[in-house]
Amino acid sequence: MSYTESQWLYFHDKFITKVKMINGNRCMVISRFKGKSREITFTCTKCSREYTLLASTLLKPWFCKHCSSKKERSIIHKSKMEMERKQALYEFHKRVEGVFSIVATKSDNLFLLRCMKCDSTKWYRVTSFLKLNQPCSQCRSLRQSRGSREIIGFLKKMDIEFKTEVTFNGCKNKNKLPFDFGVYKNDKLICLIEYDGEQHFKEIEFFGGKEGYLNRVTNDQIKDSFCKNKGIPLIRIDYRNKNIIEKLMMKLMPLLED
């Protein structure tokens, strides 16, 4: 997937920030970031030796093999781990506040949370919780936006066979990318439906800000390409459309009549 120059500049700045958080001033990046699995050139700020390694190398504690000591590596590594733990715990409590209540805890990394919206409870590890856009699995399946609920209501009313969160082995960006709905006829896939909410068109902090938005743009492009290559009709419904069901009927009915 190709990115624009401005997107790469954003990813580069993000990478540099992470490197400094993890490795402080021990190294200085001197080439442009082009992905974690691509090589990047940097220098040791202490002895000025130059290295060209995978960018992912700098996303964990790095030490110059020529001038760092074992004691220094051990102290810095422990300090870094403790800093990451405290930062993760801070972010966890920040996201939990006003959305979940803490029912119980087994450690500073495992919490039983109750969702204030649907009252469901579940154990969460801090690191896993922070990776989720919508942590509550119950709300994730029921929370569907107003548009998604309308689509579900229409499909049920018309007795149309469908499934939610449909995935395919060949459609992924690290992990499989779920389509909102798959419509079937006699157990055969007829088309896929995506309801594109507000977060698909602009940056929203709750959905990951700029980075989350860019990831969604990439994922949507991957889905579009997958459907085009496989010859699977993909119906995209824009949340800004006031007549969601009318638009859906116009595109869906001809496919069901074939």
TrEMBL record:
**Lineage top rank: taxon:** Bacteria
Supply the Gene3D superfamilies for this chain: VSR Endonuclease
* Protein name, as recorded: DUF2726 domain-containing protein
What is the protein's species of origin?
Bacillus anthracis
